[in-house]
Amino acid sequence: MYYFIVNPNSRSGKGALIWKELRRTLRQKHISYKAVFTGYRGHAVKLAASVTAKASPEHPVYLIAVGGDGTIQEVLSGVKDLSCIYFGYIPTGSGNDFCRSMQLPQDPHEALDCILKRKHIASMDVPVISIKGRKSHFAISCGIGFDAAVCHEVSVTPMKKILNRVGLGKLVYLFVALKQLLFLKPVPVTLRMDEERIYPFHKVYFAAVMNQKYEGGGFKFCPDASPSDGYLDVIVVDGLSKLKVLFCLPTAFWGKHTQFTGIHIFRCKKVEVFSTVPLAVHKDGESAGIQETFSVSIEKEPVKIILP
Ligand SMILES: Nc1ncnc2c1ncn2[C@@H]1O[C@H](COP(=O)(O)OP(=O)(O)OP(=O)(O)O)[C@@H](O)[C@H]1O
């Protein structure tokens, strides 16, 4: 039995239409499934918790998230014991960084086909972010500063709806990033890794903790990040002029930004981030509020994910 958690509101409402087509396929193929729908922000956490409440490693649940990248982190956050699920993902969002990094089909119909075939099961690290004592999971990345401010504005801008309507949803990140950069003021941020290595930075634009290579709609910020190596990759952008950031940012689409002075990349199992002023924080592109500090580690147990 497959359990689908569907965000009908993803890609500005297209998620609901795509789900109807997928449902037709499931019915035609006589697949046994249950589908539940998210009605508000954070709902997928509760739905995933209730769907997996009785699951065990002996009786696992095939849990499929249907939505954008934001839905994935909510679904994973609702699962208490990751060893009790097989995770599948059908993209109906606008950014699709998860598919890009995991090399999953970007087309929802192909993604469903891959899930039903269950050809390849792999392990994926699941990072845990702790903010003010509250823990939750994410799949792709979390960050503080510029990238989080971009995510926050992307989620509220009417431009996203308009660009999604004409199939150019990904461009919204680029426009918003340029606008945010104009008004941004870099601040001192310190990172402590694995309880011992301390790195103070003085003029930080942003710091991102990445489980996967891509975030922000295709920026390959940590080109060597791997979701199956048991490590987190961390990028810090510090001390560059705005003009240089502007020049450097497009090169990140190809992962070529790492050659610039002021771009620092680290690898660790745990990182604590301390900012001197409250800044926007995101996880998998969803706002996690305005924070001064948070920490990230990796769950001991990886999740089993269905791949093509
Ligand atoms: N029924 C709903 N109405 C409004 N918001 C919802 C609903 N269900 C889920 N959400 C919220 O919508 C937000 C965005 O969802 P999601 O990431 O799945 O889609 P997206 O933004 O279109 O895709 P992407 O993140 O790839 O750009 C999440 O914060 C989620 O909690």
Describe the structure.
The protein is built from nine helices and 15 strands. It is an alpha+beta fold and 308 residues long. The strands form two sheets. Strands 6, 7, 8, 9, 10, 11, 12, 13 and 14 form a nine-stranded antiparallel sheet that branches. It has a six-stranded mixed sheet with strand order 2-1-3-4-15-5, with helices on both faces. Helix 2 crosses helix 3. Adenosine-5'-triphosphate (ATP) binds next to helix 3.
The low-confidence runs, each spanning 5 or more residues with pLDDT under 50, are none
| CATH A-level architecture of the largest domain | Sandwich
- Sheet-strand content, in percent, reads 35-45%
> What's the structural domain tally?
2
Helix content: 25-40%
Instruction: Classify the secondary structure makeup into a structural class.
Output: alpha+beta
Radius of gyration: 19 Å
Quantity of strands, as a count: 15
Distance between the ends: 19 Å
What ligand species are in this complex? adenosine-5'-triphosphate
Output mean pLDDT: 94
CATH topology group of the largest domain: Tumour Suppressor Smad4
- Main sheet: strands, sense, barrel: 9 strands, antiparallel
From N to C, what is the helix and strand string?
Answer: EHEHEHEHHEEEEHHHEEEHEEEE
Cofactor: Mg(2+)
Organism: Blautia intestinihominis
Family: Belongs to the diacylglycerol/lipid kinase family.
Keywords: ATP-binding, Kinase, Lipid biosynthesis, Lipid metabolism, Nucleotide-binding, Phospholipid biosynthesis, Phospholipid metabolism, Transferase
